[in-house]
User: What shape does this take?
Amino acid sequence: MFRRAAVTLVAFAVLAACGAANAQSLNLRPIIGILSQPVNETAGAASRAYLPASYVKWMESAGARVAPIPYDADEPTLRSLFSSINGIIFTGSFIVAC
Assistant: This one.
């Protein structure tokens, strides 16, 4: 009887430890995609796109992970990205003067 209880207790401890390890490896932080902006080619920039650091820092300070979304990505790439993110930020805007 004692041996059976000990084996059951050890088995329960092993299962609990495995469950705790899996729970610790699961990342519940959302992944937010941020749309990049094109860079003016006359500026002589080394790349064609720009991702504002302020948006990245803003999302990371809220606990999210950030995935850049290229502004000129083709449809299959966008579909793949959109299926793996939890939200999206469309950067940029314009001001209309009245």
